[in-house]
Amino acid sequence: MLDLSYEAPKPKTIAGAKHDWELVIGMEVHAQISSNAKLFSGASTKFGNEPNANVAFVDAAMPGMLPVINEFCVEQAVRTGLGLKAEINLWSAFDRKNYFYPDLPQGYQISQLYHPIVGEGEVIVNMEPGIARRVRIERIHMEQDAGKSIHDMDPNMSFVDLNRTGVALMEIVSRPDIRGPEEAAAYVGKLRQILRYLGTCDGNMQNGNLRADVNVSVCLPGQYEKYIESGDFKHLGTRCEIKNMNSMRFIQQAIEVEARRQIAILEAGGSVDQETRLYDPDKGETRSMRSKEEAHDYRYFPDPDLLPLEIDQTWVDDIAANLPELPDEKKARFMVGFGLSEYDANVLTAELDAAGYFEAVAGGRDGKLAANWVINELFGRLKKDDKDITESPVTPDQLGGVIDLITKGDISGKIAKDLFEIVYNEGGDPAEIVEARGMKQVTDTGAIEAAVDEVIAANPAQVEKAKANPKLAGWFVGQVMKATGGKANPKAVNELVAKKLNN
């Protein structure tokens, strides 16, 4: 398999009034496990149901109701850990994370703080060809989601929807390895891509199925390197957490705004308070949500209703044996097997459906030619119509048929584009369309030669110019193509024009 070496990108630097400052970012990404039932109850997880329709007695904290763990959710967490090349802990335990909030009927969430199911892993975040950031994963733990408070339905009242209460989440905690807003967004994008490939989370950020808490701090140049060498956080600045970000664009904006806020405080001689903040995209600012005296502002107690979670290594091995091909492996295979550039391979593997489509088109064909048609023609056309690959009116077989006709010399590149538009808008078999509509390329050298002779004979002045300046031969090629309705084989035309002008 191809060994993709890369260099780390330079950290984002912000110029203050007194110093240059570097950003240090860690992220806690909450990914909803793709499961039909919640973590400790059989209640539905379907999005969009009527408020409070997806609530079991356990979720509503009815007396005497005991949680029963969903084995499928555990499997998905293990699967995710393996996909992130992380250590799987065969022994883990659940704690009660106690805090009061109206959308938390139990008064606590069941979570894994001290003994998570997944340990250290990594994510390689590609920024551009040859440039990537290795982001270390500290842990992944399972926990229940909270409900949702709704404040915009009435001027005087707030409403509570408990449908999300108890839904299984994976909290994926990174080390502070991310060094800029663009890297942070790319990290979330790469994590989303891996989760979707694994099938453990659908990555729908709009519905809140994937959201991030972003920890931001600033430090002077050179301090981060001291932290890496020593592992001592004192070299880094005080971090602030920006809560519940569910947009790549807003993540970038919030980091930039928060970093500049911290720099202004530090350069004025103040100190940054460790706290949780919210980003207001309308005002372009972060505002304090709650202070943090310690690293965690919650109280944790072991859950008395749940035994420690013990899983078997053979079960983990079975899950590992059935993992799908992940994005980085697929990208490397596309580069080796189809001769693609790193850029093209990145584009084609960004979404699993797109990768599958390309592979169906490229099978038994020229990989680079297939990639060119999928990326430039199909993706470009779909983007214009605001469609994704699953909505493509052109099937892989149809696009493959167009490419086959080009390869055989039946049609030129220009005719192929016209043919693609017909197939896109009307459907049909490309070969039959070419035959029925007389689009087949003229390969008869006799017919092409006759057309070349006719153009040369009609333009003696241009012939003399072309003999003096061979670059002008292209004019004759254009005229011949025009005369043949674009059907003449361009290669044959070029060869004959060059031959005739040189005689």
Strand content: 15-25%
Supply Rg: 30 Å
Shape: elongated
Distance between the termini: 52 Å
What characterizes the major β-sheet? 9 strands, mixed
Q: Based on the structure, what is the oligomeric state of the protein chains? A: single chain
Q: Count up the helices.
A: 16
Mean pLDDT: 91
Helix content: 25-40%
Spans of at least 5 consecutive residues whose pLDDT stays below 50 are none
Structural class of the secondary elements? alpha+beta
Q: How many β strands by DSSP? A: 16
Task: Provide a short characterization of the protein structure.
This protein is α+β, with helices and mostly antiparallel strands and 503 residues long. It is built from 16 helices and 16 strands.
General description of the model:
The protein contains 16 helices and 16 strands. It is an alpha+beta fold and 503 residues long. Among the domains are: 285 residues, no CATH class; 58 residues, Arc Repressor Mutant, subunit A (Orthogonal Bundle). The strands form four sheets. Strands 1, 2, 6, 7, 10, 11, 12, 13 and 14 form a nine-stranded mixed β-sheet that branches. It has a three-stranded antiparallel β-sheet with strand order 5-4-15, with no helix packed on it. β12, α4 and β13 form a beta-alpha-beta unit. α8 crosses α9. The mean pLDDT is 91.
